[in-house]
Amino acid sequence: MYKLSILIAVYNDEQYLEECMDSLLSSTRQSVMYNAIHNNKVEILITNDHDNKDKEFIDIINKIKNKYTLPEDSIKYYINKENQGLLLNQCDMILKANGEYITFIDPDDHYNDNVYGEVFSVLNYTDIDKKPELVICNAERNDFPYIIPCSKITQTQISKYFVLWTNFYLSSILKDTIKDLFGLGFNLHGFAISNDVLINYLFYSRINFDLKYKIINLTDINLVTHIKPHAYISQCYFIQNFYYLKQAIKTLITLHQISDLAISKHMLTEHLYKCLCFNLKLHMYIVLLNASINTEKENMNNLLMQIKMNNFNPIIFSICVTFYNQSKYVKTCIDSIINQNLNFDVIQLVIVNDCSTDNTDEEINKYINGHKDLNIKYIKHKENMGVFEARRTCINNADGEYSIFVDGDDEFVENEFCNWIHEIFIDKYGFKFDLIFNCRYYDFRNVINDNEKMKTIDENKKLQLQKYSYEFMYSNDKPGNFDYFIKKTFYDNKSATIPLISGVCGNIIKTELFKSCMTKLSKAQINYNLSEDFVANLIMLDRKPSILRSVYKNVSFYKYYDIGGANKDSLSAKFCQYGKQGLDIKNMLPCFENFSKGYKLIKTHVTNKLLSTLFEDRVFESFLNIFESYKQNSRDQKRVFIKNFFESKKINSEMKLMILNRMKHEQNNNFNFL
């Protein structure tokens, strides 16, 4: 019996096969594997999935055999009479394999040099207590210790390592897994995506049911280098071809059905079933997003009909727009959102009118009536509740996987939102992040009237946060990096990073993440209107979500205005006016009474010291700015403000103590009048 079977599925990528085999068979590059093959310990199974290149395929196989003078039957090859798809092709090879263990490699990949020494030392264990049912290569030590009982594996651990080509499977269990899959009675013909996910979760479930099974993690072995995108994946995800997109969606729907039946037959553990469904949903979103950008309206409708018939929610993004007395900007704002090069079937608009007193309601209804083909939810508050409550209403009505907040007087740049999400979710990362900070926006806060607002970006452009010329990320499966991410993102040059954390508009936020934070905060707790977004961001960050600090080329999709068509008498508006001629410092006390509410929320809901310190820095910096900006106020007026501040019953004692301690150490003599 062979110790190992290596399975290779070929489809339109024969041209890479020889390089792949060189990385496996060369005596100098892979000495341990070379000896194992020549001692009949390894077999290689290669199947051509009917790509009509039979002669080229056979010529390459014969060339490889002659080049390495391999033992008889060490390479077995098959040519399918019809194209079966990757999943069925791999399943057939698994059942044909004769090795004690099975692994996979794509023909357009190659093995890194001399990686098999430690692998074979583990596969050759004879002690039954040490012998693994699964060997994982290059998994993080934080995710899997060297040896872990299969019953202890978690959803997070498995979701990261579901690709077949980094693993070595005990053949007997993998064969039983495939037989179970066939026994469910589904037609697997043509399946070409998520095959790794399905096979792995069924395999993990089978070994998870038995306490004796174990996994060995070879952390230091980087087994494979991926050279080219596999033909199946490129067809299903990235080629702008309606047929392949339709096949991909059909496959994912069927995989959901397989998952449902598998758990009903106790072939999946509950937590692995949930994880599998989550993975399939993310794959569906990638296909849908690609389709929404590259597919004609009629074809997109066919895809959506197929999805909705199977009770799958196609909404990826909920764009949440809040209005208060901004009737003049309703059309401009919403037009900028819907006029992206994007099929809006995967996007929902949630509009909240915070009880405007102008004709905002009339303008919104007029717009909705003229765009009945759009998915729009409109909610009007019966009383003015403030922007944070308006955002709570938005998020409670959001159906998308992600939400993006927009202020009613802001705009999207033409097509740049579409380009940005394409780069993040399709070209680079998929749907792996919970919170994506948009590090650049066009700042029009100096715009004071509608004529100024009509200027082009080229005339007005001021691109914020130029400091960030590179993307930076935190993944929540590596908790040791969180503080480093916070320091690097928010503590390096705070003047540049404060805008990043001060607002939620223009960021992409996992809807459930924002909802869960809102659940923590009662309406009474957040009944204030200063630094609400800052508090929300800190509470979300404290949950250590997966975060991306995104820099999209040298442009932005978001135009940020502060025309103030909303509430010029709000605390936010007053606070931004400090230093203006004739403004009395005593009017600033309500601002700090509201800061105190935010301070209490931070102390209650934020456990990370670095994050809570960011809010303290913001409060004290604002306190300092008062005294630096209000030069027209006398020393006596400033003394009265200090007295009233520390005597106010609306400012909690913890915040007063923090301010007092920082005043003692303040270096710029702002308090020398005391």
Task: Tell me what the structure shows.
The protein is of the alpha/beta class and 674 residues long. It folds into 3 domains: 2-227, Spore Coat Polysaccharide Biosynthesis Protein SpsA, Chain A (Alpha-Beta Complex); 317-562, Spore Coat Polysaccharide Biosynthesis Protein SpsA, Chain A; 569-674, no CATH class. 46% of the residues lie in helices and 14% in strands. It contains 27 helices and 21 strands. An 8-stranded mixed beta sheet has the order 3-2-1-4-8-6-9-7, sandwiched between helices. The chain has an 8-stranded mixed beta sheet with strand order 13-12-11-14-19-16-20-18, with helices on both faces. Strands 15-21-17 form a 3-stranded mixed beta sheet. The longest helix has 25 residues, at 270-294. The radius of gyration is 30 Å and the shape is elongated.
Please provide a brief summary of the model:
By secondary structure, the protein is α/β, with parallel strands linked by helices.
Rg estimate, integer Å:
30 Å
The name of the CATH superfamily of the largest domain reads Spore Coat Polysaccharide Biosynthesis Protein SpsA, Chain A
- Which structural class fits the helix and strand makeup? alpha/beta
Number of structurally distinct domains: 3
Please list the strands of the largest sheet in the order they lie side by side: 3-2-1-4-8-6-9-7
Mean pLDDT: 80
CATH architecture of the largest domain: Alpha-Beta Complex
Unreliable spans: 229-239, 452-467, 563-571, 578-582
Largest sheet: 8 strands, mixed
Shape: elongated
Distance between the termini: 89 Å
Portion in strands: 5-15%
